[in-house]
Amino acid sequence: MKKFSTSLLLSIAMLALIVAAARAAERVQAGQWETTITAGARDRVLKSCVTAAEANVANGDEKTFRASMVKTAEDAGCTVKDVKVSGNQVTSDATCGGMQATSTTTYHGDWYEQTSSNGTKVRAKRVGACP
To answer: pTM for this one?
Structure first.
């Protein structure tokens, strides 16, 4: 199995957090988020602060959400091919680091989970206010 680089894992985590914008109502809350990425038999835990401005963009309409996801992906060296939103679930096709994956993310309030066709799993939760 290919080893995952830190930058690729960070890109996956960033995309997963941005994908959180796909749920109706308040999709992403401002605050500190803890994301666990499982790739192969290895877990990586990352923390990130979502500002109120970032949450507002993530909670915008579908057009704003898609534009934000595409930009975040491009900034991370990834390409988003397709995004489908259905209730609290988002499916996306993206290529990062030469690896294509279809990901499905399901939201449950202040946490979400994502599975990808490449075997990567992401689970994130809001853990409080930003430091």
So the answer is: 0.74
